[in-house]
Amino acid sequence: MKRVDIGVLSEKSGVSPSTLRYYEEIGLIQSVGRHGLRRQFDAQTATQLALISLGKMAGFSLEDIKGMFAKDGSPRLPRAELHLRADALDQQIRDLSRLRDALHHVADCPAETHMECPKFKRLMNFAARTNTRHKV
């Protein structure tokens, strides 16, 4: 099994050494030994880091991502959860597209003031409803 030094892994993956140490501390990745004081990782760790990055991009927490790896580090991707996440992203894309279109309209609106623009008023009402839905 080919081992790679933490510095080399950091350089190739774009993940800082401190983040690699943190990921190891919380159990997301495992070093397979040391060369002096430097941690050594196996080749599979680069794949794990790519999956961690993808999971973060999809909005999963590090704890969620940790649950997506078996004890040996191989991925166990929860298909049902991935479908739910994809559906949530679809909804977010639709919402952001509507917001983008509304902002373009407001920026180009011929009304003398934004407060006279019906579309701007609808946008404000939407923002107010969204804000009250997301209060914790």
TrEMBL record:
PROSITE patterns: HTH_MERR_1, HTH_MERR_2. Keywords: DNA-binding, Transcription, Transcription regulation. GO terms for molecular function: DNA binding; DNA-binding transcription factor activity. Residues 6-71 form the HTH merR-type domain. InterPro entries: DNA-bd_dom_put_sf, MerR-type_HTH_dom, MerR_fam, Tscrpt_reg_MerR_DNA-bd. SUPFAM superfamilies: Putative DNA-binding domain. It holds the Pfam family MerR. It comes from the Bacteria. The keyword Transcription regulation applies. This is MerR family transcriptional regulator. It comes from Marinibacterium profundimaris.
